């Protein structure tokens, strides 16, 4: 009977990402009465090839091969004494080189889920006094160094890798690393990890019992690490990274706090004067040990976004009906609106600024790199990109990311978008230069006071869509908060022009009740009107809305109002899983272009009543029913399929990932021009990826064809 390792692991939580193709190929399966077996060289016997055993045997071969540990120091299924209880056994134990009775490394592979595996591993290591503990499921590995100070409970710090048989633990702890080496060894790529999973480790080992605000402390550490990567790339001649464990707890804490202060000087305005890292030196050392092996720059920021979404969404966002937008949804919206280098962009409900940062990437034709933006890119970020949000934590993240992208300046403001009369002076001054010039000097002055009408070219937003706004002072700023009634066509019998308008325009089928206002309105409805206020004539926007706004009978007036003020360009239905686990609300992306009657304008969009609308429904959402991202699987090794920058590729139909790969390959041809071997390897990976990606119709590309056919002013040029 034919057996395969990939087939055995397919339905398990185990993987093979940690092992090379040669290591996997060298593991021979043996058939015994229709069952797959493996030969265990340590126990000198054949064992059933269950998923955990496959991982253990591959790791045993790494220990004796790659790491050089002699077989006589390695034991399998060795008893672990827990007080008087000797019924427990460790999957693998490596004994001390000088004391065969002492455990040096304990390895746990029985539990494929990380939290349970690490808890059991620590229990075994504490019982045996082992200084090193390893948990792995074949896809991910955690290497912990158990530090035992006199009179104190054991603490754990993470190691980048297991020491070779010829090395000491200090050799690994004291190792220096350049930014180039960090890029090559980046655990986010080599182990296909997420920053979220690393933060879960931090929570389990450090933050859960630290008595500090997890969001704030992780944010400070990420800020310091981003600065360290920037400095290693741009300022340090030796290109060494400093965000690493440095001997004692106090020495490590001093180094990392120094990086945090330098980051505040480089990118000011995010933290208060005197604000510092609140972890104890021991906690800080452990936290650094888990973050030091990853590289944050040169990513598409999904790495960082996912981590901050995990930390903030439940307490800061979910209760308000506002949720972090999946990055593939953001990229589709950016592609469909296609902002250009000479155009202004705003997000009026910014969250962590995913829309504006990805709009930057779109215009720059690049991703987030430690080298920093080029002068024209800095100018674009400083002059053309704006964001508003009322949530303090979201604004903090958004300002930080935009500060770094803009190299020291940001146009992210904490403000209630729906109530401009209450904006603080900082927001009013910052937004003033984007105010629209009105028809007369008096109207322009009134607009400057009210902060109502702006001249942005592109607006991208996912406004909050839970809860009603009841403040009458705010409601009376909006036409959509006026009470309306349906017009009886029989009352128009003596007015042919009005009757013709009634038949022609859905908006004419309603009229205001003079002086009457609704006592409440959903926030997302008010955001539609407010967002159109932000756009210049001919400006365009893509916003996420509840699906009900497009088909509820009670929202007929809203749809008529939208049609009177803008062309409905596109409606893209998103899958119900898209915003899980935070909400199961069915949503759509609405693309509008504001009417513009000026034939001399580049965004000429004259009012019309009958025109085609692009409709699409996503059938591959990129999320599952639990709200986890669904990634493409590499058919060769069963691991996650990575793009050319090392990012896992989400499985969706919102846009063609081949376009992203083309951009990445173009950049690598420039970056690797002096390294023919590396360039050839990148070209080979690119050719392989474009052939194994799913062949399916994608929404952004179908919309681009539609936009060109319709002659929309912002239609992209054909490739």
Task: Describe the protein in words.
The chain is α/β, with parallel strands linked by helices and 719 residues long. The strands form 5 sheets. An 8-stranded mixed sheet has the order 12-11-10-13-18-20-19-21, with helices on both faces. Strands 4-5-6-7-8-9 form a 6-stranded mixed sheet, with helices on both faces. It has a 3-stranded antiparallel sheet with strand order 1-2-3, with helices on one face. 42% of the residues are buried. Residues 314-321 have low confidence and may be disordered.
As an assembly, this protein is single chain
State the low-pLDDT regions, or none.
314-321
Based on secondary structure, the structural category is alpha/beta
Mean pLDDT: 86
Q: Strands of the largest sheet, in order across it?
A: 12-11-10-13-18-20-19-21
General shape: elongated
The biggest beta sheet is recorded as:
8 strands, mixed
What is the helix content? 25-40%
What's the total helix number?
26
Return Rg in Å.
29 Å
In what range is the share of β-strand residues?
15-25%
Distance between the termini: 50 Å
Topology, number of strands? 21
């Amino acid at each position: 009977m034919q057996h395969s390792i990939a087939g055995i692991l397919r339905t398990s939580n185990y993987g093979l990402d940690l092992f090379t193709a040669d290591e996997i190929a060298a593991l021979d399966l043996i058939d015994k009465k229709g069952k797959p077996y493996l030969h265990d060289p340590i126990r000198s016997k054949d064992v059933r090839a269950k998923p955990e055993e496959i991982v253990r045997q591959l790791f045993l071969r790494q220990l004796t091969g790659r790491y050089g540990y002699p077989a006589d120091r390695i034991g399998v299924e060795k008893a672990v004494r827990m007080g008087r209880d000797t019924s427990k056994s460790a999957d693998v134990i490596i004994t001390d080189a000088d004391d065969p009775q002492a455990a040096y490394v304990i390895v746990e592979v029985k539990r494929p889920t990380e939290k349970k595996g690490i808890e059991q591993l620590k229990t075994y290591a504490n019982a045996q006094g082992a200084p090193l503990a390893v948990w792995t499921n074949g896809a991910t590995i955690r290497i912990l160094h158990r530090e035992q100070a006199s009179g104190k409970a054991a603490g754990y710090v993470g190691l980048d890798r297991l020491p070779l048989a010829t090395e000491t633990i200090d050799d690994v702890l004291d190792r220096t690393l350049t930014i180039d080496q960090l890029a090559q060894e980046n655990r986010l790529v080599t182990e296909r990890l997420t920053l979220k999973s690393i933060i879960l480790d931090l929570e389990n080992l450090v933050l859960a019992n630290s008595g500090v605000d997890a969001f704030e402390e992780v944010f400070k550490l990420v800020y310091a690490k981003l600065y360290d990567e920037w400095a290693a790339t741009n300022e340090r001649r030796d290109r060494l990274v400093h965000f690493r464990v440095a001997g004692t707890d106090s020495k490590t804490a001093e180094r990392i706090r120094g990086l945090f202060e330098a980051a505040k000087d480089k990118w000011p305005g995010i933290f208060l004067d005197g604000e510092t890292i609140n972890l104890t030196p021991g906690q800080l050392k452990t936290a650094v040990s888990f973050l030091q092996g990853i590289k944050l720059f040169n990513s598409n920021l999904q790495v960082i976004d996912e981590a901050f979404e995990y930390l903030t969404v439940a307490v800061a966002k979910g209760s308000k009906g506002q949720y972090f937008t999946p990055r593939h949804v953001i990229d589709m919206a950016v592609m469909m609106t296609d902002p250009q280098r000479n155009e202004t962009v705003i997000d009026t409900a910014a969250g962590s600024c995913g829309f504006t940062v990805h709009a930057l990437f779109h215009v720059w034709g690049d991703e987030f790199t430690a080298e920093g933006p080029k002068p024209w890119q800095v100018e674009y970020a400083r002059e053309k990109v704006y964001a508003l949000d009322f949530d303090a934590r979201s604004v903090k993240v958004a300002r930080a990311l935009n500060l770094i992208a803009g190299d020291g300046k940001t146009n992210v403001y904490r403000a209630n978008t729906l109530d401009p009369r209450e904006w603080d002076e900082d927001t009013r001054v910052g937004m003033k230069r984007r105010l629209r010039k009105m028809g007369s000097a008096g109207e322009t002055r009134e607009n400057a006071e009210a902060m109502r009408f702006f001249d942005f070219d592109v607006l991208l937003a996912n406004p909050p869509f839970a809860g009603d706004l009841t403040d009458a002072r705010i409601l009376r700023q909006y036409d959509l908060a006026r009470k309306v009634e349906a017009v009886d066509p029989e009352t128009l019998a003596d007015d042919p022009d009005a009757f013709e308008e009634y038949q022609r325009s859905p908006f004419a089928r309603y009229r205001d009740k003079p002086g009457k206002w609704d006592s409440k309105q959903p926030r997302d409805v008010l955001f539609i009107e407010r967002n159109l206020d932000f756009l210049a004539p001919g400006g365009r926007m893509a916003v996420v809305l509840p699906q009900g706004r497009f088909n509820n009978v009670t929202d007929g007036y809203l749809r008529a109002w939208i049609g009177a003020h803008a062309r409905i360009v596109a409606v893209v239905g998103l899958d119900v899983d898209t915003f899980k686990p935070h909400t199961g609300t069915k949503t759509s992306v609405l693309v509008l272009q504001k009417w513009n009657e000026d034939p001399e304008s580049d965004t000429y969009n004259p009012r019309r009543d009958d025109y085609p609308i692009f409709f699409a429904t996503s059938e591959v959402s990129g999320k599952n029913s639990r709200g986890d991202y669904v990634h493409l699987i590499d058919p060769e090794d069963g691991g996650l399929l990575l793009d050319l920058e090392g990012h896992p590729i989400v499985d969706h139909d919102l846009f063609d990932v081949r376009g992203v790969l083309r951009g990445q390959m173009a950049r690598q041809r420039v970056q690797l021009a002096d390294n023919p071997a590396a360039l050839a390897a990148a070209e080979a990976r690119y050719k392989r990826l474009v052939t194994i990606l799913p062949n399916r119709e994608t929404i952004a590309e179908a919309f681009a064809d539609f936009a060109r056919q319709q002659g929309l002013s912002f239609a992209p040029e054909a490739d």
